[in-house]
Amino acid sequence: MLTKRIIPCLDIKDGRTVKGVNFVNLRDAGDPVELAAAYAIKGADELVFLDISATEEKRKTLADLVYRVAEKINIPFTVGGGIRSSEDVDILLKNGADKISINSSAVKNPGLINELVAKFGSQCIVVAIDAKQIEGRWKVHLVGGKVPTELDLFDWAKEVEERGAGEILFTSMDHDGTKNGFANAALKKLSRMLKIPIIASGGAGEIYHFTETFQLGEADAALAASVFHFEEIEINDLKRSLKQQGIPVRV
Questions:
Q1: pLDDT tens profile 88-109
Q2: Contact in structure between 58 and 65 (CB atoms under 8 Å)
Q3: How many CB atoms lie within 10 A of CB 41?
């Protein structure tokens, strides 16, 4: 069985790490370079950097900040936010990213997934999907969760896989920042219908939430932000607990 991954997420706005609840009410969570360096030492398996206002502000991802973070870490590094072209990806990879994450741009131009996979390889391309339940159906949202669409989460995830993406980062907007646990029913459905890895995001509050998302949600990786940023959960403690429950992790 493949080891399960623990991934801290740096949501970046105005050059600082921020965290909110249900994608709003953001508060400062620290310097991204310092946080990244600490996570690399504390046992994180990977790091995700999301420039959360780049799409809304119609600008490129902060390549200089990406470079400064990459200099401080020795773990796989995924970067997203405002990526619209292969040129954008090229710049980020040259500045130290190992993988890139696309979201709104993929929905608006699905062929971008194929283009990026052909140029950079599927292992480099993560598609992030932000969704929330509306009248019992999971609807995809764009622009940092601000723009709802009629696109169904599961239909879109299947298309993403068919277009060659190497991984899906699924964030439940209903669970984001609530610390009440991950969207395990939706994660289980995604995990069983797709062959590519699924990263669970949104809802981590306790160590047992990670256990649940690996056992009940069948996720391949779990991403969290505030519980790590504010030291409510230590990654090494989390991994020891997971290992004791028979969940394979790298320690």
A1: 999 999 999 999 999 999 999 9
A2: no
A3: 12
Q: How far apart are the first and last CA of the chain?
A: 15
100: Cα separation from own chain's centroid: 10
Q: Does 98 qualify as catalytic in the annotation?
A: no
Q: Could you tell me how many residues make up the chain?
A: 251
**Whole-number Å distance between alpha carbons of 121 and 39:** 27
**Degrees (nearest 5) of the Cα angle 172, 176, 179?**
120
Determine if the pTM surpasses 0.70.
Answer: yes
Reply yes or no on whether 174 is catalytic.
no
List, for residues 155-205, the tens digit of each pLDDT value: 999 999 999 999 999 999 999 888 999 999 999 999 999 999 999 999 999
Alpha-carbon distance 26 to 137, whole Å?
A: 27
Q: CB–CB of 55/143 below 8 Å?
A: yes
State the catalytic residue, choosing from 51, 130, 176, 220: 130
Q: How far is CA 33 from the centre of its chain?
A: 18
Per the CB < 8 A criterion, the answer to whether 93 and 120 are in contact is: yes
E-assigned strand segments in the chain: 5-13, 16-21, 24-30, 47-51, 77-80, 99-102, 125-134, 137-142, 147-152, 167-172, 198-201, 221-224
CB 184 within 8 A of CB 217: yes
Choosing from 11, 51, 88, 176, the catalytic residue is 11
